[in-house]
Amino acid sequence: MDNRGQASAEFILLFGGIIVVVLLAVHMYNAYMTDLSGEISSKEVREFNVELNALEKYFK
User: Is residue 32 situated within a structural domain?
Assistant: First the structure.
């Protein structure tokens, strides 16, 4: 029996599984950050519009 071949195959499967888990985590993190940036941007735009509307009374 060739145990070295089996050990090499197990290491390849282990590293492959780790790579899959890391890629899934990166994908989920990217999606989370994209959603978060969209919320921040819309909140900032909304607050900017409120400030502009508050300044409107000074220019009439």
Answer: yes
Task: Report yes or no on whether pTM surpasses 0.70.
Answer: no
What whole-number distance in Å separates Cα of residue 27 and Cα of residue 35? 12
Give the chain's domain count: 1
pLDDT digits (tens, 9 = 90+) for 9-60: 999 999 999 999 999 999 888 877 777 766 666 777 788 888 888 887 777 6
The kind and range of the H/E element at 49 are: helix 3-55
Q: Which domain holds residue 34?
A: 23-60
